[in-house]
Amino acid sequence: MDEFTWSCIVHALAIVPWISYCFMITFFAISIFYGRFFLHQLSNPMQVMDSLPGVSIIKPLMGTDPFLEMNLESHFSLDYPVFELLFCIQDEHDPAVDVVHRLQQRYPGVDCRLLIGGRQGILNPMVNNMAPGYDNAKYDIVWVSTSRIKASTGILKDMVAKLDNPQVALVHQMPFTTDQKGLTHAIEKVYFGCGAARYHLAFHSLGISCFTGMSYLVKKPELDDLNGLSWFGRFLAEDFFIAKLLHDRGFRHQIAAVPAQQNVASTTIVDYKDRMVRWLRLRLNMMPITAGFLEPLGESVPLGIYASWSAHYFFGINPYLWFAGHWLAWIVLDYLQLKGVQNGPLPFSILIFLSAWVIREMLFPLIYFEAVLNVRRITWGKRTYFLSDCGQSISIASDKSILPI
C-alpha cells in the first residue's frame, strides 16, 4: 500500500469519532430536555376516555427477595376500578406461592389468580412462565410487570391514558431503580438513569423503536394478531421482537411518564456485570452492526480514547488532556441526565455518584469483550442457551435444572 492510500485511510478513520460526537451531543440534548420537561408529567385518562378499561396484570414469579412482598402488595393496593392479578409460577413449592397467599388473605376483594406450571414447549423461560396468565386474561389490556417492579396507581393510569391512542399498541416504562443504599445499587441507578435513559428518551423522541419488557402495557387484540405471547417464546429477547413487529405494522410505542421502579433488596457488581453481558450478547445477535460497532462509540471510554487520538492527529492536542476534558464533560451531562430521570435529589452523595459512574464506565470494556468472546451462548439462571439466525432461534446448550429459570 502506497503512502498516499495509507494516509487517506488514517484520515478517514480519524474523522469517525467526530461523527460519533455529533450523534452523542444530539442524544444528550434530546434526552436531557425530555427528562427535564416531559418525563414525570402524568397523563389523566379521564381527559381522553369516559371510563377506565379493565386491565389484566401478569406477574411472572420465581423465588423470593426481601422486597418481593412489598412489590406485589403495590399491585394489590392499586386504586383502579377494574383489574385482575395473574401470578405465574413454575413450581407449586416455590416460596413465592406463600407470599401470594398471604396477600390474597390480606386483600380478599382483589381479583387474583395463581397459575402454576407454565407452558411446555416454550424455550424462553419468562414467556414459558407467563403464557398461562396471558391465555387466561379477561381484559383487552395486559400489563406485563416483572417481580422486580413496584407499581402505583398513577403509573397505571398514565399508561392506560397513553394506550388510548389508536396508533399506539404498546406503552412501556423506561427501566430505572428505587432508592437503595450501597455502591452496587448506585451503579445500577447510574447505568439506568444515564446511558440507558439517554437512548430510550432520545430514540423515543426520534420515533425509533427502543423497548425494554420489564414493565409494559399492550393491547391484547393487536398482540393476538401476531399469534399471541406464546409465539414469541421462540426468542430469548421476546420484548425486542414484540416491539419490532408491532412497530413494523405501523403502531407507535409510548414511554410512561414514570420510569420503572426496579425494587430489589440485594445485588452485587458481579450480578450487574453478568446481567449486562447477557443483554449485550442478545443485542449482538439481533443487531450485530449496531451493538458490535456503533454501541462502543456511544460509550465514554472507547469514544474518549478514539477521539483523543484523533484530536492529536488533526490538531496536535495532548491526548491525555483531551481525554480528561472529554470525561469531565460526559460526567456533567450524565449527572444532569440522572437528575432529570430521578426527578428529585439523588439518594447518594456526589462522591458516591462519581465512584459509581467511573466503575460503570470502566466495566463496559470488560462487559463488551466478555460478551463478544462467546457471543452465541446466553446464560440465564441455571440454563445456557445457544442463539443463531440473528437471535431468532434458540436451543438449550446445557441445563442444570429441570425447571426453566
User: How would you spell out the order of helices and strands?
Assistant: HEHEHEHEEHEEHEHHHEEHHHHHEEE
Number of strands: 13
Distance between the termini: 54 Å
Main sheet attributes: strand count, strand direction, barrel closure: 7 strands, mixed
Q: Count the helices. How many?
A: 14
- Residues in helix, %: 40-55%
Strand content: 15-25%
Secondary structural class:
alpha/beta
Strand arrangement within the widest β-sheet reads 3-2-1-4-8-6-9
Mean pLDDT: 93
Radius of gyration computed on alpha carbons: 22 Å
Shape by Cα distribution: globular
**Any low-confidence stretches, pLDDT <50, length ≥5?**
401-405
Question: SSE layout and pairings?
Answer:
Blueprint: H1 3-37, E1 55-61, H2 68-76, E2 83-89, H3 96-106, E3 112-116, H4 125-135, E4 141-145, E5 149-150, H5 153-163, E6 168-172, E7 175-177, H6 183-206, E8 215-219, H7 220-224, H8 228-231, H9 238-248, E9 252-255, E10 260-262, H10 269-286, H11 288-294, H12 300-315, H13 319-342, H14 350-373, E11 377-380, E12 383-388, E13 393-399
Parallel strand pairs: 1-2, 1-4, 2-3, 6-9, 7-10
Antiparallel strand pairs: 4-8, 5-10, 6-8, 11-12, 12-13
Helix pairs in contact: 1-6, 1-12, 1-13, 2-3, 6-13, 6-14, 10-11, 10-14, 12-13
